[in-house]
Write a structure and sequence with these properties.
The chain is mainly alpha-helical. Helix content is about 75%, strand content about 0%. Helix 2 packs antiparallel against helix 4 (about 35-60).
């Protein structure tokens, strides 16, 4: 049976990506419930949502179901999940002090790289995800997981300290990968920034 556009959009990989966005309100709601169980529930939701980031790409490649819609939505879903988690952690005092600087660096990196990708996309120039960027994503997800649990984690495990150290490592990787993306993208921007030449947004 021939696939319709709706079927292509709602294939398994894209459905997983969409689910990553749909669980965000539930994840946010868990922060407003007091007690240790709510933190573990929030962690479970976050881990499940983060896992879809792996599986949507895996199934898209295995089943040859990659679509333009999926390529558009996947990075948006990732950034929405991470930004929401960092903002909620900061708002509820689970990221404090200098760790807030690390969280800010991560958020700023996401904005810069997103802007760069959007601009270059207008010229049909793709900026592939680097292995180091994938490592950055993994580290920041683990860091956020530890910080979600916070001080209700096992007594013998310095959960908050581990989360903060990993957050700073993710921030360092954010700076390095942002530089790499800018270094790869700026020559295209400079080349296209000629008198009389309009940008895709104009």
């Amino acid at each position: 049976m021939e696939e319709t556009p709706a079927r292509m959009i709602l294939n398994l990989p894209n459905s997983l990506t969409i689910s990553r966005i749909l669980v965000i309100p539930i994840f946010v709601a868990a922060f407003f419930v007091e007690g240790a169980p709510a933190r573990w529930v929030a962690l479970a939701i976050f881990v499940a949502a983060a896992a879809t980031d792996f599986f949507d790409g895996y199934f898209a490649r295995r089943n040859r179901q990659a679509t333009d819609f999926g390529r558009f939505l996947d990075p948006i879903a990732d950034k929405l999940l991470v930004a929401t988690a960092l903002l909620m952690l900061a708002g509820f005092g689970r990221i404090t002090g200098y760790a807030l600087i690390a969280a800010t660096i991560i958020l700023l990196r996401e904005i810069v790289v997103s802007g760069l990708r959007e601009y270059l996309g207008g010229f049909k120039i793709e900026v592939p995800v680097s292995p180091l960027a994938k490592a950055k994503t993994a580290v920041q997800m683990v860091a956020i997981g530890f910080l979600i649990v916070g001080d209700v984690g096992p007594e013998e495990l310095p959960t908050v300290r581990i989360g903060e150290i990993l957050l700073w490592l993710a921030a360092l990787l954010s700076v390095i990968t942002a530089y790499g993306y800018l270094r790869a993208g700026l020559p295209h921007i400079i080349k296209d920034d000629e008198p009389g030449k309009t940008s895709p947004a104009e």
